[in-house]
Amino acid sequence: QVQLVESGGGLVQPGGSLRLSCAASGFTFSHYAMRWYRQAPGKERELVAVITSDGGSTNYADSVKGRFTISRDNAKNTVYLRLNRLKPGGRAVYYCSGYNSWGQGTQVDVSS
Q: 34, 76, 84, 106: which could join 98 in a potential S-S bond, CB 3.0 to 4.6 Å?
């Protein structure tokens, strides 16, 4: 059974940072690219970042380039998303995706 479980969301002040984690199980994690998406209220889900199976290549949405970092630890079957310099007023649910599966999401609220 494939499972993706996100964690690490919460309330953070503008300009602050968070690290999201996504623990994978049920498939050979090291063989698959992984993605982080986010969905703000009333908006479509958007792709935020992608990392190749070996972690050697990454790509980002223009809106987060230079502020977010995707990484992975294949020994721990986990993919991460470091969010830096978070913008005020931002609220979104962040989802990880891989092997045609989705996690349940973790919410991030940026507010003072």
A: 34
- Average pLDDT for 85-100: 92
Which one-letter DSSP state was computed for residue 36? E
Q: What is the DSSP string of 18-41?
A: EEEEEEEESS-GGGS-EEEEEE-T
For the chain, what is the total number of helices (H) and then of strands (E)? 0, 11
> For residues 57-76, b (16+ Cβ closer than 10 Å) or e, as one string?
eeebeeebeeebbbebeeee
CA 55, chain centre distance (Å): 14
Beta bridge partners of 35: 50, 97
**Contact assessment for residue 10 and residue 18, using Cβ atoms and an 8 Å cutoff:** yes
Point out which residues pair with 39 in neighbouring strands: 93
Query: What digits encode the pLDDT tens for the residues 74-83?
Result: 999 999 999 9
Tokens 């996690």 belong to residue: 103
